[in-house]
C-alpha cells in the first residue's frame, strides 16, 4: 500500500510503482493500472523501433476499441523516467506499449484495464500474423477517418 506521493504505508511495492503513480496523477478518472509483459507487443517495439505506434490503419478493432496504441520510449525499469515518458500520452491513451519492456493499460475499472491489455496483445498478434503472411495493408483513408469518427462518438474508454 502506497500513497499518491509514493510513501510506503505497508508491504513491499514494485520498483515500477512510479510509472503507476504517474498515471494516477495525470488521470483522475483512473481506477486501475495494469502493467504486463505481453510478448508479441514487446516484440513489435524491438523489431520496429522506428514505429511511433502499433500500425492500426488496417485493423478496425484497434481504431474502434482503443483509438491507437502508441509506443512509449524506452526507460530503464524502476526509474522515474518510466513515469516521465508516459506524460505525453496521458490521459489521451489508455493502452500503451512500453518499448523493449512491456505494456500498460489503465481504466475506470479493473475490467477496462484488464480487457485493454488483452486487446493490446491480441491486436499485436493479429498484426504480426498479417505481416508474416505477406505484409500489412491499410484500410482506405476514408474508412479510417470514418472509424476514427465512430471512436470519438464511443468515448475514451477501452471497449
Summarize the structure.
The chain is α+β, with helices and mostly antiparallel strands and 159 residues long. The protein is 42% helix and 11% strand. The chain has a four-stranded mixed sheet, with helices on both faces.
Write the layout of secondary structure elements.
Layout: H1 17-26, E1 32-36, H2 39-47, H3 60-65, E2 71-72, H4 80-84, E3 95-98, E4 102-107, H5 110-132, H6 141-154
Parallel strand pairs: 2-3
Antiparallel strand pairs: 1-4, 3-4
Helix pairs in contact: 2-5
Description of the structure:
It is a single chain. The protein has six helices and four strands. It has helices spanning 17-26, 39-47, 60-65, 80-84, 110-132, 141-154; strands spanning 32-36, 71-72, 95-98, 102-107. The protein is globular, with a radius of gyration of 16 Å.
Please state the structural category. alpha+beta
Molecular shape: globular
Question: Average pLDDT, to the nearest integer?
Answer: 96
- The tally of beta strands, per DSSP, is 4
Percent strand equals 5-15%
Helix content: 40-55%
Q: Could you give the order of strands across the largest sheet?
A: 1-4-3-2
The number of helical elements comes to: 6
Sheet bearing the most strands, described?
A: 4 strands, mixed
Distance between the amino and carboxyl termini: 29 Å
Low-confidence stretches: none
Instruction: Spell out the helices and strands N to C.
Output: HEHHEHEEHH
The rounded Rg comes to: 16 Å
Q: Which features would summarize this protein structure in a list?
A:
globular, about 160 residues, 4-stranded mixed sheet, alpha+beta
